[in-house]
Amino acid sequence: VQLNEGEMIVVPRGEEHKPFADEECRVLLVEPKGVVNTGAAGGQLTAENDVWI
Predict the structure, then answer these.
(1) What SS3 state is found at 16?
(2) Stated pTM of the model
(3) What is the pLDDT of residue 24?
């Protein structure tokens, strides 16, 4: 899926995905509390979740 400025997508729960950009961009990810960013893979790229903004 390719998105342009101002567009968004909802990835269904359980769908494997890996967002990326060819150039620097701003992204807003909204995830339910408790979601692990690396899924079951874990590892050094796992980030803390549950940060309230």
Answers:
(1) coil
(2) 0.53
(3) 92
Beta-strand ranges (E) seen in the chain are: none
- The residue among 29, 28, 32 whose CA lies nearest residue 50 is 32
Q: Which domain holds residue 9?
A: 1-53
The 8-class DSSP code of residue 11 comes to P
User: Which residues have C-beta within 8 Å of that of residue 46, sequence separation ≥ 6?
Assistant: 36, 37, 38
Number of domains in the chain: 1
Distance CA 40, CA 8 (A): 25
* Token representation of residue 44: 């050094």
In contact, 17 and 3? CB cutoff 8 Å: no
